[in-house]
Amino acid sequence: MKIKNLIVFGTRPEAIKMAPLVKEFNKNSDIFETKVCITAQHREMLDQVLEFFEISPHFDMDLMKQNQNLYSLTSDIIIGLKPILEDFRPHYVFVHGDTTTTMAAGIAAFYSGSKVCHIEAGLRTFNNRSPFPEEMNRSITGRIADFHFAPTDTAKENLLNENIASNTIEVTGNTVIDALELSVKRVTESSYTDKEIEELNKLWNPSKKLLLVTGHRRENHGQGFINICNALAQLAKENDNVQIIYPVHLNPNVQKPVYQILDGIDSISLINPLSYPGFVWLMNRAYLIITDSGGVQEEAPSLGKPVLVMRDTTERPEAVDAGTVILTGTNTEVIVDEANKLINNDNAYQQMSQRHNPYGDGKACYRIIEFLKNQI
Ligand code: UD1
Ligand code: UDP
Fold this sequence. Notes:
This protein is an alpha/beta fold. The protein contains 16 helices and 13 strands.
């Protein structure tokens, strides 16, 4: 009998980081029967990823509601997964990272008796409210999981310090590097055409330094985003050699301040969230990336791009230690000062843009599957 896997995800970053695992399991279909279940905690932003990686989910719970809240999303996921788990009866349920989908699907899988495999396990800021609610989501998932796939040695250390048995932890690298490699390979195929990239090519001004911006963290909603937008407006005003491109997250708590403060400024382009290959294309052309995203922080060092992270805490100390990432928080002045240093000081810029990738070698999914084969 084959081993039955259910891979569950709901948001854009989970989809990007789980897509290579789905592909790798499909290569091992003689041993594993693998099904994909999307909660669709995100809709458009998730569908963009599924389309690019050519993944057709077996189950689509279609849960996203406009400006959804954590209470109803959590309960909808747990209740919605019950019949899927009871019908398919997977041996292993895979969840990723720290979203509400991750935590709620982990609990549902535990109730059903399936073994829970946590991908991107062991990240910690040690501050339960930052990032909110992600630190708690991943801590709960860590308690529930039977197997922990940690991206780095630091993440493994965090789990060992929580008394997780070391023979249930495997350091694999982050699957985001597998995704990045798959994407670069696909985009460089001669048959590949992409209308979005053609449009981006028209928007991009190669004679200017491109600042690429993303942001969405819940703890930055409100004053945090107002500060961030004021910083971007000031940077645009002070530097006529700079172009800012900002694909704006669809969360209304992000859209509102961003469009209110930044719409209409000449050198700032506010655009819709990009599909993965379009965003990677733009990252490759960026001079500097300004973000509060987790995934972008992991991808940028691979591409040799300095990153300012608009957060006070980090669960990804590796790139900060390596000097390719600086934490700025959401203070307007600090963001402007740090960005100006890199825009105007070539030495500081060169030091930060040294290519260094602490997050993996593109073989994380292979390692996850080898580990599970050894459990048989
Ligand atoms: C979620 C995750 C966060 C992750 C982020 C990645 C939680 C609590 N938060 O935050 O950990 O880093 O995704 O982007 O799990 N929306 C759309 N279309 C979309 C996606 C979102 O319209 O495709 C809008 C909807 O109004 C939705 C809102 O954004 O209700 C918020 O989505 P939600 O998933 O709750 O929060 P995010 O801020 O996206
Ligand atoms: N990304 C994308 N399109 C965009 C912006 C980001 O495909 O317009 C990708 C990015 O390359 C990274 C992931 O989305 O892999 C990060 O998602 P997000 O910042 O929403 O979530 P986080 O990583 O913070 O959880």
